[in-house]
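A.,

Following up on our hallway conversation. Structure tokens first:
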């Protein structure tokens, strides 16, 4: 009986027409191009009434209250439009991309190694954001240099850390940061920063020298020699580097190697002065005296030789000889001061 009632109802022309219309509408709604066109037409039809409903539809006069008649008349348009309106954002994007892809400029993304947000880059990889970051990093670096020169090491470190965050490949900032840590006695941290600088500029002789000196300060003379040697491969005629590696060899106990580098750096007299210093630092006073005496023989007016030798004579109980050298030192130093005071003023411009 129930099925007979249903079939009898379906034979009613009005009901049958409504079902057919619903099927047609559903079929049309499945076609994106048709759906889009129908939605546009229905929306424009609804807009003819210029109604403003509770969902915020447009109204030619916002001060007017919603009109009930217009809502009722516009409702069928809106209802049918909602049937055809579906979330096809992906399809829409695909359609736009297929049509306009050749007209669009594909902009690559550049991610800094410091974990900062993506930045838009041009074809050369240069961006306004990156340039701005580099300028800011350089400003921080210059401020850090000023602070360091004033002895405000902690303030300089803060600026330098910020600079390296803004510009991850700022080798000079890492180098100066390492120098600051060396000055604070934080040698392991300093060495890490020097190596970061060298990772960016592996052939920078200054950085290599500084790292060698950092190891020298920790009495790790083997590593000091290693890094100085790397520096000398870059700048083989660097007299400062030869002097430093000579000191490291001397502290290692390789005095012959030390003398070779000292001679290149400061000549024969300077080499004996440096060897005298190395031996005295190791408590080998007799050897130190020997080299200071050799330096004084080669250059009798050498103030460093007179001063250091006099101190060693006092330390070893040779007081009369120490007093004689002290008198010579005072006489020569006074003469040198007077000479400086009577120098041609034109040379001091």
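Then the amino acids I'd put at each of the 349 positions:
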């Amino acid at each position: 009986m129930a099925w007979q009632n249903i079939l009898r109802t379906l034979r009613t022309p009005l009901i049958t027409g409504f079902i057919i219309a619903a099927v047609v509408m559903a079929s049309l709604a499945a076609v994106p191009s048709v759906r889009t066109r129908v939605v546009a037409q229905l929306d424009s039809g609804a807009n003819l009434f210029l109604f403003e409903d509770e969902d915020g539809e447009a109204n030619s006069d916002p001060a007017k209250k919603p009109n009930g008649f217009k809502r009722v008349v516009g409702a069928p348009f809106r209802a049918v439009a909602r049937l055809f309106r579906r979330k096809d954002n992906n399809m829409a994007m695909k359609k736009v991309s297929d049509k306009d892809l050749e007209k669009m400029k594909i902009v690559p993304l550049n991610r800094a190694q410091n974990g900062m947000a993506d930045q838009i880059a041009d074809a050369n990889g240069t961006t306004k954001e990156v340039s701005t970051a580099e300028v800011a990093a350089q400003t921080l670096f210059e401020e850090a240099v000023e602070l360091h020169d004033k002895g405000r090491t902690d303030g300089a470190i803060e600026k330098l850390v910020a600079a390296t965050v803004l510009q991850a490949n700022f080798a000079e900032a890492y180098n100066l940061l390492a120098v600051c840590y060396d000055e604070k006695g934080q040698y392991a941290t300093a060495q890490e920063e020097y190596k970061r600088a060298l990772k960016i500029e592996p052939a920078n002789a200054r950085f290599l020298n500084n790292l060698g000196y950092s190891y020298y300060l920790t009495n790790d003379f083997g590593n000091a020699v290693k890094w100085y040697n790397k520096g000398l491969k870059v700048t083989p005629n660097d007299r400062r580097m030869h002097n430093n590696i000579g000191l490291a060899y001397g502290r290692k106990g390789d005095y012959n190697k030390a003398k070779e580098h000292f001679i290149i750096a400061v000549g024969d007299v300077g080499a004996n002065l440096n060897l005298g210093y190395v031996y005295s630092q190791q408590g080998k006073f007799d050897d130190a005296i020997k080299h200071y005496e050799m330096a004084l023989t080669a250059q009798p007016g050498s103030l460093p030789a007179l001063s250091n030798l006099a101190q060693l004579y006092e330390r070893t109980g040779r007081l009369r000889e120490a007093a004689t050298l002290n008198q010579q030192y005072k006489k020569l130093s006074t003469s040198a001061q007077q000479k400086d005071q009577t120098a041609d003023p034109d040379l001091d411009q």
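The radius of gyration is 43 Å. Curious whether your intuition agrees with the design.

B.
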